Backbone:
């Protein structure tokens, strides 16, 4: 038996599940896992189905499904479950999120393929090479930013990348690059925004006596740090913690949130619905 994962999103209306079920029945498929949600604000219907069938032709199964659901004009994504999502990771100097992703990747906990790691610094080269992953150094200056982003787009196409993961990549992507990869770039940052913007947010938070440290992952859009949120977490802190303690706690929360985010994306559990997300966890 061959296992597939189906993602379907379209305008909500009667008959969608019946149509999907009919298409799966044509393939003699057995549904292993299914979740669906109708968003009342956008009238969008989201469905994720994991199923198995004795048909191993992806195109034949896709054709059977489309013959029933095409009238709903859906966004339909279908893949063999063993065909992993391909993720390009970008990092600057802080390596805690990258290290955590590579730890779970090397253990087989993250079902992804990582063809390359891109950085505007050389710091992570040894870490990438230790995991047998190509390291690509793309320095950024105001003069080279456009050429660097063009090279990045070439890498996305060359390696057939599904998702670009900014694992503490400390450069702002241009609106042109963000708009060229809608729903395909994710970022991680502290959750102090919009309260403590700019440099040294943990120092600002310490001076204001914050009582919790958090992290947020989101899709990257042309509106800086305002894309649809995917995952969040917090850690309570007290008055006795120093700035250094807050930074350490923050890094720990960031790595946890990003790893969970990548895992959700790897399993096709994330849908973007307007400015929000639907997550089938």
Residues:
């Amino acid at each position: 038996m061959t296992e597939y994962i189906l993602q379907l999103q379209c305008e909500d209306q009667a008959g969608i599940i019946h149509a999907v079920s009919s298409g799966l029945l044509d393939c003699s498929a057995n549904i292993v896992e299914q979740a669906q949600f109708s968003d009342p604000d956008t009238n969008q219907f989201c469905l994720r189905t994991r199923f198995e069938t004795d048909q191993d032709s992806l195109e034949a199964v896709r054709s059977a499904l489309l013959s029933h659901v095409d009238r709903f004009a859906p966004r339909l994504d279908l893949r063999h479950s063993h065909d992993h999502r391909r993720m390009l990771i970008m990092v600057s100097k802080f390596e805690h999120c990258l290290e955590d992703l590579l730890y779970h990747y090397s253990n087989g906990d993250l079902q992804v393929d990582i063809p390359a790691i891109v950085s505007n610094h050389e710091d992570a080269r040894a870490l990438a090479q230790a995991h047998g992953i190509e390291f690509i150094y793309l320095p950024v200056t105001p003069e080279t930013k456009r050429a660097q982003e063009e090279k990045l787009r070439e890498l996305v196409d060359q390696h057939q990348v599904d998702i670009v993961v900014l694992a503490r990549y400390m450069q702002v992507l241009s609106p042109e690059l963000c708009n060229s990869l809608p729903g395909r770039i994710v970022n991680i940052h502290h959750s102090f925004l919009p309260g403590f913007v700019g440099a040294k947010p943990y120092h600002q938070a310490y001076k204001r006596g914050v009582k919790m440290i958090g992290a947020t992952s989101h899709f990257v859009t042309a509106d800086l740090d305002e894309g649809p949120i995917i995952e969040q977490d917090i850690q309570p802190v007290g008055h006795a913690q120093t700035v250094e303690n807050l930074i350490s706690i923050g890094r720990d929360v960031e790595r946890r949130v990003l790893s969970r985010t990548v895992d959700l994306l790897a399993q096709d559990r994330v849908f973007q619905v307007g400015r929000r997300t639907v997550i089938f966890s």
